[in-house]
Amino acid sequence: MPDLTIEDLGAAGDGIARLDGRTVFVPGALPGERVRAELTGKRGDAAVAAVEAVLTPSPDRVTPPCPHFPACGGCALQHWADAPYADWKRAKLAEALARAGFADAPLGPLARTPPATRRRADLALRRGPGGAVLIGFHERGGQAVTDLATCAVLDPRLVALLDPLRAVLKRVPALKRQGSAVVNLLETGPDLLLRTDGVLEAPARILLAEFAAAQGIPRIAWAQNDGPPETAAQLGLVAIRLGDVLVAPPPGAFLQASPAGEAAIVAAVLAGLPERLPARAAIADLFAGNGTLSLPLAQRARVTAFEGAAESVAALAAAAGKAGAKVQAVRRDLDRQPLTPKDLQGFAAVVLDPPYAGAPAQVALLAKAIIPRLIYVSCNPAALARDAQALGRGGWRVVSATPVDQFLWSPHLESVVVFGR
Ligand SMILES: C[S@@+](CC[C@H](N)C(=O)[O-])C[C@H]1O[C@@H](n2cnc3c(N)ncnc32)[C@H](O)[C@@H]1O
Questions:
Q1: pLDDT-flagged residues of the chain (< 50)
Q2: Between 3.40.50.150, 3.40.50.2000, 3.40.50.300, 3.30.56.10, what CATH number should domain 84-114+241-420 receive?
Q3: How many angstroms does the Cα of residue 353 sit away from the middle of ligand 1?
Q4: Where in the numbering of this chain does the TRAM domain appear (predicted)?
């Protein structure tokens, strides 16, 4: 059982030590700490160790606010004081941009998300002993599920649903061994998409409808495994306000995970637009989802919103049409059929907000495109570093960069990077 000195914090928020020349990841340990740890496994060429005792605690070690920490994989850094935590998050963006060749990029302050405000969660479901149902995030580094009694990051209205959901799912045979629950807190209340490993029969649909009525849930959708969702219970309309437009998102729709995170991202995107937009200016919003960015952008210019998911394109088109917003929603797979420099000619700005893997195919063409502004919204600094490097090779420079801590106490970081020519 070696004693280790923690030299740094890795990308996943684990302490990093060296042992006999080898890297050791030590979850739960903080920079500067001396810990007694047991080697428990491997991660690539590195070893992984579990803390047995903190011999010399960091002065920045604090009491975690949630009783499920550190077992629950939803959070990794509740035990760290806020100031070094925030510095570490902000530095992630600086490091990603430095790796891409933009060491001097002007970096804004970290936009913060308060605790107890996350409105979107993808929760794992497990059938436990005696038919009980476990609901929560996966445990750190494993497949087991932490059965949440509370949560320090979720909106309390979602936390309040956990017990009643556990109780109703106990009586739903469609959850045989495992499944998931995506819950989006909309303007109209919680919107639930259940995925189960068995078929949802009529009696269980009635139970879910009763549960929806009791909990003020306008819609529960259901899907078997990764199949397409269908409505299991619909008691009212679903809507979320994006910009000043009410959108009815499809079940399980992607939404920015917290209102504060969304507001920070939208503000940074709008601030990144060219100062003077011509009267007939047009903006392209790539990976547009349900219009989180397209609809606020449409208050400044005409927007063409490109998105791969048909349901989201339909939701955005319907909402924009009804509200008279200047958005044209277009279904397009931007990995298989990225927009070419010719397609992008004439746009005053391009906004792109790709999924976690980034957008290498689209970025290769954006690198060559002659557009005044390119605004890249990222949820993965590693993908951003790779894509920004390609843009740098194409002659783009960084005008501004805003780090956004949307997933409080997790190692994740969102960012908005504005590129100019
Ligand atoms: C990070 S989300 C951003 C959505 C939206 N901009 C927002 O802020 O809510 C990424 C979006 O890209 C879409 N997407 C994923 N792969 C795609 C592809 N190959 N082509 C087009 N859209 C894709 C997803 O459906 C999702 O809506």
A1: none
A2: 3.40.50.150
A3: 7
A4: 1-53
- The pLDDT score that the predictor gives to residue 142 is 84
Query: In terms of C-beta distances under 8 Å and separation of at least 24 residues, what long-range contacts does 274-281 make, across chains too?
Result: 274/348, 274/349, 274/372, 274/373, 277/301, 277/348, 278/348, 281/348
Q: Which two tokens stand for residue 258?
A: 């917290």
Q: Please state, in angstroms and rounded to a whole number, the distance separating the CA atoms of residues 225 and 211.
A: 22
Q: Which atom of ligand 1 approaches the CA of 336 most closely?
A: 19
289 alpha carbon to ligand 1 midpoint, in Å? 5
- Whole-angstrom CA distances from 143 to 77, 146, 148, 189, 247 are 20, 10, 15, 30, 35
In eight-state DSSP terms, residue 368 is: T
Residue whose CA is closest, atom 4 of ligand 1? 289
> Annotation-wise, does 256 bind a ligand?
yes
Instruction: Tell me if ipTM is over 0.95.
Output: yes
Residue ranges around ligand 1 (CB below 6 Å):
254, 256, 287-289, 292-293, 307-309, 312, 333-335, 353, 355, 379
Where in the chain are all domains bearing CATH 2.40.50.140?
3-61
Q: Which positions are catalytic?
A: 379
